[in-house]
Write a structure and sequence with these properties.
Elements: H1 3-17, H2 27-42, H3 50-60, H4 66-73, H5 83-106, H6 113-131, H7 151-186
Helix pairs in contact: 1-2, 6-7
């Protein structure tokens, strides 16, 4: 090897030894860079053992991967894992995290019991005011059947009562479901 090749080999070794994933990079970007650095080092007939590559790649990941790295390193067959097996397991972890984030972003905002009580109270107040009034007849929400005697204001009120009652029921149901999920996750 001439002096230029020795210098490039030393640079490739240094790049491999100092390789770290950056916080702003995703797993695919880190992995692609790592594979490129490893491949570059191999062009200089540098023999990299599989376990050396696996360990270096795991150690180069940002701290948010520490739990997954710990799990991988505690596997019985960790020393036998091929680099591509480790990369595939990391991608699986990454996919699980993205799936959970997506599912959480699709959830309805949480509703406090006080807000549910307030909506229910408002619906009950509307029923009391308009349901007992002789000029508007009987107003029943939820069932869809309404007998109203006095014009368009009554039908608007009936629709408001119905919508409020339905919303109140939905909020109570969603709140109970969310509480149930929180209890299940904490067990």
């Amino acid at each position: 090897m001439n002096m230029l090749e020795l210098d490039r080999k030393a640079q490739a070794e240094n790049e491999f030894n100092s390789f770290v994933g950056l916080k702003h990079e995703n797993l695919t970007e880190i992995t692609n860079r790592f594979l490129s650095v490893s491949s570059n080092l191999k062009t200089y007939d540098e023999k990299l053992g599989n376990h050396e590559q696996v360990t270096k790649h795991l150690d180069s990941l940002p701290t948010q991967w520490s739990l997954q790295i710990k799990e991988l390193k505690q596997e019985r067959n960790f020393f036998d894992l091929k680099l591509m097996d480790v990369i595939n397991k990391l991608k699986s972890f990454d996919l699980d995290v993205k799936r959970k984030e997506y599912n959480q972003s699709m959830m309805l905002p949480t509703v406090s019991p006080q807000n549910v009580a307030l909506i229910t109270s408002a619906a009950n107040s509307l029923r009391a005011v308009f349901g007992g009034s002789s000029s508007y007849g009987s107003v029943q929400s939820g069932g869809g059947s309404t007998s109203v005697c006095a014009g368009s204001n009554a039908s608007i009120t009936t629709q408001i009562l119905s919508d409020t009652s339905a919303l109140s029921g939905m909020l109570v149901h969603n709140h109970e479901a969310l509480i149930g999920e929180v209890v299940e996750e904490s067990v």
